[in-house]
Design goal:
The protein is an all-alpha fold. It has four helices and no strands. The N and C termini lie far apart (about 35 Å).
């Protein structure tokens, strides 16, 4: 499957790479770091192993840093604010 070049895909690519860079500098809040780790954990058996997302074909871990979920919530939701993430963790038994 070949990636489509769209404004949305370009925007997600830039956002994911920018957020990954700022994370490497220690500038990501804990609730965002947790959600990125959760996304990668949910995809560890296929996408992470292959190095790219099976839904959008973007490279990993870069794509996990973008706000919007590429799988329409099938595996994980969009990145959330802290209060929403805390509630999601509680409702889904995420430690």
């Amino acid at each position: 499957m070949q990636k489509k070049i769209t404004f949305k895909n370009i925007s997600n690519f830039i956002e994911g790479n920018t957020r990954m860079f700022t994370d490497s500098l220690g500038f990501q809040p804990q609730h965002i770091k947790e959600q990125i780790a959760y996304r990668l954990l949910m995809c560890k058996d296929d996408c992470v192993k292959d190095g790219y997302c099976k839904h959008c074909q973007c490279p990993l871990p870069n794509r996990a840093y973008a706000t919007e979920s590429c799988n329409k919530g099938e595996r994980f939701p969009d990145l959330m604010k802290k209060v929403e993430w805390d509630k999601y963790k509680e409702e889904n038994g995420i430690k």
